[in-house]
Design a protein that fits this description.
Bound molecules: alpha-D-galactopyranose
Distance between the termini: 28 Å
Number of strands: 28
Strand content: 15-25%
Largest sheet: 10 strands, mixed
Helix content: 25-40%
């Protein structure tokens, strides 16, 4: 994996030839607003109304044609773009930019009829039928050939069309089909393995530990995908299959992107990543697109529905090297695909949209413009709902569109943070393999154990891979990084010895890139930097808890741990928090160690959130990191965006209470310019404030 540089993309308007991505952002001339537009589902009169309403709601960017393959190629080779010619002409006439899809996300019936072998197969051998979408094997040469032919025709046909601002390649790759286990995939996997292991079957035997359970291979030809087996399939084989499947899907993107870049080099490319999707390594894919975009569907029934999106938005910004990104899809209100589909209560859609902006998004889009009348998603909300425009949902949408239009100079500013959380898809894949000490070390939940307290402490974070250049960060937090290569471990050690502050959680540094244990006591490649040695993991029973208490600077901390303990020996580190349970009294739960010029901490257990806040708060104080705004009430978020001489402070109230927030410095209300801000901003329940800095900002500090 490549290091993801921070802040390397030029802020729009700075020197150098503008990239296709930069041109796209400039063309929009402000925060983009819009959604998936599926006019093929509607009669002509409705489409005329759509254009009027889009102007009313200040829509300036729509995604068109995502599921239109069957319409533009109704039978093999019979391309007919006339419908979309009209749509794009109309959009252009109304000043709306098209994010034109390559239409390859749902193969048409004729293709499945002629080539049923393109259908994907699950690990238990079930062939998945058409009738839904994404029913293709990513390795299928037939699917790829027909997709490439369509993209070639589309790009040639729409080259130079004034509405075309962005290519939307595929749709949510890996959402339904993260991996296919058919014979075509099996062949492709063998090809991939030959390349990965340079044709050396002994290298594969070594990497996969195949002497375990008599799996030694004599030839690459004998290898199959890790299909359902009598017991746990080989974990290294499964890990490689996830890597292979990630690359097979990425191959579909790259195939289309190559064609588009050849025919329309000036038009940028995106593909919409999906919040929380394990199958697609966003850090690996992001360099293949010009603009990062993501779909985000928080569950309004969650207690803190803003946390997981925040983490994912920070990941998207990290993947794009700090560049602006597109919130490509969110629901205007309810979705249709959960067991119980909560609506977004009044104000939440606005709040969560501004939340994306606070995390660096310069485009706020939805699925979808008009709520469908038929089909599987008819109960998924739309910007124009079944009830029509005389509805709460439409009124909130139109109000937000107008509100975003009041800050045309917000794009071009960036979010800059001093704290990083490390995330690595290879680790995610390996961490959640089976036959581990505890099934409770689930990636997303454990990430949130670290993210939530930082959020509550009022500190913004960047999410970056462990290979990233960490030197600019004051604090780096490493949640449960089970899979850690020696190279990445050296990156962490060098960061601390050079003066950095590191916090590492249990079950980190356990295996190498082939899921083989680093020997000699865990976490072998991090023992030195952490000053600890772990002899044995001691996973807790469900609901088992352990009292803990702080020492030294944390002496007044009392809390509870659960999930995990370790037989932890100190080899230089000092305890900062100890267990109090009778069987474990005085044994270290959290340690602190000076290493080179820096400081590292190790957490050998899962702490309750308040205790985690105390530990991370201490690490932040030591590292000299202060909150964006001091003394924020719980659930209130602050984010600063700066750049090109401008400065914005965005305040978000994720609670049902009114809060008065004291903001230092000089600010004006960016949404109601006549309102002066006299030191205190009142946030109504679920409210938002967007403030513009009135002090001059040093250009050099951008
Ligand atoms: C059984 C098997 C062993 C081993 C153990 C693990 O006893 O015979 O090979 O898998 O289970 O508990
Ligand atoms: C995804 C898809 C959309 C739509 C929405 C519904 O994000 O990309 O086509 O199905 O889900 O939530």
């Amino acid at each position: 994996m490549n290091a993801v540089p921070r802040d390397v993309m030029p802020v729009s308007g700075t020197a150098g030839a503008p990239s296709p991505g930069d041109r796209f952002w400039r063309r929009l001339g402000g925060v983009a607003f819009g959604g998936d537009y599926n006019p093929e589902q509607w009669p002509a009169e409705t489409r005329a109304e759509d254009l009027r309403l889009m102007a009313d709601a200040r829509v300036n960017l729509v995604t068109v044609g995502v599921f239109a393959w069957a319409r533009v190629e109704p039978t093999r080779g019979a391309y007919d773009f006339s419908f979309f010619d009209q749509v794009l002409d109309d959009l252009h006439a109304h000043g709306i930019t098209a994010d034109l899809a390559t239409m390859t996300a749902s193969p048409p019936p004729w293709l499945v009829h002629e080539h049923p072998e393109i259908l994907p197969v699950t690990s238990d051998g079930t062939v998945l039928g058409p009738g839904g979408r994404q029913h293709f094997c990513p390795s299928s040469p037939v699917y790829r050939e027909r997709a490439a032919l369509l993209v070639e025709r589309l790009a040639t046909h729409y080259r130079g069309h004034p509405a075309l601002g962005l290519w939307h390649v595929g749709n949510e790759y890996g959402c339904h089909i993260g991996a296919c286990y058919c014979e075509v995939s099996a062949d492709d996997f063998r090809r991939w393995l030959r390349e990965r292991y340079a044709g050396d079957i002994e290298a594969l035997n070594d990497a996969w530990s195949t002497d375990f359970w008599s799996q030694r291979y004599a030839s690459f030809d004998h290898i199959r995908p890790p299909r359902v087996a009598p017991t746990y399939p080989n974990p290294a084989q499964r890990l490689d299959y996830m890597r292979f499947s990630n690359e097979a899907l990425r191959g579909c993107l790259e195939l289309e992107a190559g064609i588009l870049r050849r025919i329309t080099p000036e038009v940028p490319i995106t593909t919409n990543f999906l919040m929380g999707l394990k199958a697609v390594d966003v850090f690996d894919w992001a360099p293949k697109v010009d603009v990062v975009s993501v779909d985000s569907y928080p569950d309004p029934h969650d207690e803190r529905p803003h946390l997981l999106p925040g983490l994912l938005y920070d990941t998207m910004r990290g993947a794009g090297g700090g560049a602006p990104w597109i919130l490509m899809e969110q629901a205007p209100s309810a979705v249709n695909w959960r067991a119980r589909n909560a609506i977004k209560q009044p104000g939440r859609m606005r709040l969560w949209s501004w939340q994306a902006v606070a995390h660096g998004a310069d485009a706020i889009l939805y699925f979808q413009w008009r709520q469908s009348r038929g089909g599987a998603e008819k109960f998924h909300s739309g910007m124009v709902p079944h009830a029509g425009t005389d509805s709460r949902v439409y009124r909130e949408i139109a109000a937000l569109g107008r509100e975003l239009a009041r800050v045309p100079d917000l794009p071009g500013t960036r979010v800059r943070n001093q704290v990083a959380i490390l995330l690595d898809w290879n680790n995610w894949w390996a961490l959640e393999l089976d036959s581990h000490p505890s099934d409770g070390v689930r990636h997303e939940e454990r990430l949130l154990d670290h993210y939530a307290p930082l959020f509550e402490l009022g500190v913004g974070v960047d999410v970056v891979p462990p290979s990233a250049d960490l030197t600019g960060y004051a604090l780096v937090v490493v949640p449960n990084l089970y899979l850690l290569s020696d190279e990445n471990a050296r990156n962490l050690s060098a960061y601390v010895s050079g003066g950095g502050a590191l916090v590492v959680s249990f079950f980190s540094g356990i295996v190498d890139e082939h899921d083989r244990v680093h020997l000699g006591g865990y976490p072998a490649p991090l023992r030195e930097v952490l000053g600890v040695r772990v002899e044995e993991f001691c996973p807790a029973a469900e609901r088992e808890t352990f009292p803990v208490r702080g020492c030294g600077a944390l002496a007044d901390v009392e809390g509870v741990a659960d999930l995990w303990r370790e037989d932890l020996r100190l080899t230089g580190a000092e305890p900062e928090l100890v267990f109090e349970s009778p069987d474990w009294a005085g044994r270290p739960a959290v340690t602190r160690h000076r290493f080179g010029e820096g400081v590292s901490r190790y957490l050998s257990t899962r702490l309750d959130e308040a205790t985690m806040r105390a530990v991370l708060g201490r690490a932040l104080t030591e590292a000299g990191v202060t909150p964006v705004v001091e003394g924020l009430p719980s659930g209130v978020q602050a984010s600063v965006r700066t750049g090109a001489g401008r400065r914005f402070l965005i305040l978000l109230n994720h609670t049902g209470d009114k809060h008065d927030i004291a903001v230092g410095g000089e600010w004006a209300d960016a949404l109601a310019p006549s309102e002066a801000v006299a030191g205190i901003v009142t946030l109504p329940p679920w409210g938002v404030a967007v403030l513009r800095g009135t002090e001059s900002v040093d250009q050099a500090s951008n």
